[in-house]
Structure prediction request, 278 residues.
Amino acid sequence: MTHPMPKTRLARLIPHSRFWEIDALRGTAVITMVAYHLMWDLRYFGVFPDVDLWSGFWMVVQRFTAVTFIALVGVSLTLVYRRSRAAQGTQSGLYWQYFRRGLKIFGLGMLITLVVRAAGIGYVDFGILHLIGFSIMIAYPFLRFTWLNLGIALVFFAAGGLVAQWRFDGFWFTPQIGSWIGIPTWIGGWLIPFGVAPTRYLAVDYFPILPWFGVVLVGIWFGNWFYAGSRWMFTLPDWGDRLPVKWLDTLGRNSLVLYLIHQPLLLAGLASLGMIKW
Prediction:
């Protein structure tokens, strides 16, 4: 890629159409995702029944994976937004491109919902694919802003911490108010995407809008700040063609496909080794 500017400034420009550091970070998250889900499978099927996945090392792995995937959604949205505007010379029609993409990913999330329920493993009423699809559909108005998104993200985090204390079982108790509010359970079910869940909720993948859309907004802030003007804020080395970065880039570019197929492959592999029974 050539640019009509002095050679001394080329180092700050992004040398490829893709951003190797974004793909590599997403690829790293793919590896930690597979490792965490492998351990989850081994615990679920009784191979390692005492492993603790909800604190310590494995909780850090799970949180790193989720935050990385979700934040990079926001970063990628800003890059696509600027490139699309530059290529078309207008932002007309861009929203519907985002909406269709988000709807497709949300539909994949609904497919996982049906599969998990049919398997009797637990619930995925609003998992990470639901959140990503929803976020892509509604993020468009935020893409023009930078620091404002960081402030709005803080609001989502605070609201998420508040609603996480609310539960419903035919009635919905709000400790902050200190009163009982009657609410039918079927209505309460529509609050699950916003972080209000049943008292006993066996969710195996749960990323409600509050607070997790705030992580997307942080990604949008970072994308608009660090990659402003389609160039790095600071000079980065071009490691995109080096190993193992190149391998991580490949994983990152195919993260959605790998997300969809890695669990069946893990289960098939464990079953073939005789470690679990279907």
In short: Residues 1-16, 171-181 have pLDDT under 50 and may be disordered. The first strand starts at residue 167 and ends at 168. The two ends are 52 Å apart (CA to CA).
